[in-house]
Each structure stands twice: as C-alpha cells, then as structure tokens.
Amino acid sequence: MRILLGLLSVAYASVVRYGSHISLIHVQSDHLLNSLTKIQWAHGGQIVTGISKGSDNEVVGSATWIVRAPVKNTATLSAKKLPYFTTQPGVPKESKDVFAAKPAGTPIRCGDEVKMEHAESGLILSVLDQKSQITRGLEVVGLSADDRDDTFVVECAQDHWDTKAPVKFRLNGEYLSSDSKAM
C-alpha cells in the first residue's frame, strides 16, 4: 500500500523560507525523512529513508534539510543570447555563474519550486529513474547538485508553505511518497 508523503515541516517560524533548516515528517507514520552520510548505494547516491522520531540524536540530526531555491547555471545558457555572462572583464569564459532563482529569506509560496539539500552532506534530494528493490517505487537518494537538477513543486492549501499544515512535493507529475514496507 502506498502512503502519500504529505510532509509537514518542523521549524520555529510559521512560514518556511528559502534557506530554512527543517525536518520533514511523514504524516501517516510520524517518521522523519532522513539521509545517512555513511551509507551509499552502488550508483553513488546517499541512502534516504524514514526514521522514528525516537531514534538517537546522531540519526535524528541527519534528518535536517535546507530548503534551497532552484539555481540557474549561466554557463549552460547560449552565449549568443546572453553574451555579457561570458564577456565580463575578469571572468573566465569557462567559469560557472550560478545564481539562485530566489534569494534566501524569501517566503515559499504554494506552487514554488524547491530543492532539498541535506544539511550534513550537502547532497540534494533526488528521484532516480530506477525502481527501489524494496518498494518497487522510484528510488529516492541524495546526489551531488552537479549530478541532477531535481526540483520539487510545493503543493499546499494556503498561500505559503506553513509549518503548521501538511504539504506535498511533486516532481515530474509524481509525488514524493513512501511505502508501508519501507517504514
């Protein structure tokens, strides 16, 4: 049976902002979305699981995520369209001009895109195109920001992502979810 991850953020402020450090709780099971830095899959991805809130402090500390705005890499944009990115004095042509789509501190509105960065490892929450051996759903891992560009759409009932109300995360038409076998 699939259980939707109507994730609830746990933070001190009511409205979640880009740059916020949060923990995500699976509403139905009361488990935290967790990533262990010591365990990696063969493809190099860091394992992402759900853990009990009653787990030891080291494990619970690995359940902290930083909400990031999607970034744009101007090095991938056409120089013909935006020549000033590659011709600025003192900026090598091969440099990566990376900038956030929205600055830290900006409140996240329902429908905005976010990236979830694991606070300990700096890896980005990513969904692979391969099935999990346990649940047969798509596998969720932590990967380097250079490896993938997984941005999730925040779905919520209010105007902004509020810590007091559940939210859902959608990527390519699919929801971030869990399976009762994996909890």
Which key features would you list for this structure?
183 residues, mainly beta, Trefoil (Acidic Fibroblast Growth Factor, subunit A), 11-stranded antiparallel β-sheet, two-stranded antiparallel ribbon, 1 helix, 3% helix, 40% strand, globular, disordered N terminus, MIR_dom_sf, MIR domain-containing protein
Overview of this structure, please?
- This is MIR domain-containing protein.
- It comes from Gregarina niphandrodes (Septate eugregarine).
- Keywords: Repeat, Signal.
- Residues 13-70, 105-157 form the MIR domain.
- By secondary structure, the chain is mostly beta strands.
- The chain has a single domain (17-71, 102-176), classed as Trefoil (Acidic Fibroblast Growth Factor, subunit A), CATH 2.80.10.
- It has 1 helix and 15 strands.
- It has one helix at residues 57-61; strands spanning 2-4, 7-10, 21-26, 31-40, 46-52, 65-68, 71-73, 98-100, 113-118, 124-131, 138-143, 152-155, 168-171, 174-175, 177-179.
- Strands 2, 3, 4, 5, 6, 9, 10, 11, 12, 13 and 14 form an 11-stranded antiparallel β-sheet that branches.
- The longest helix is centred in the N-terminal third of the chain and has 5 residues, at 57-61.
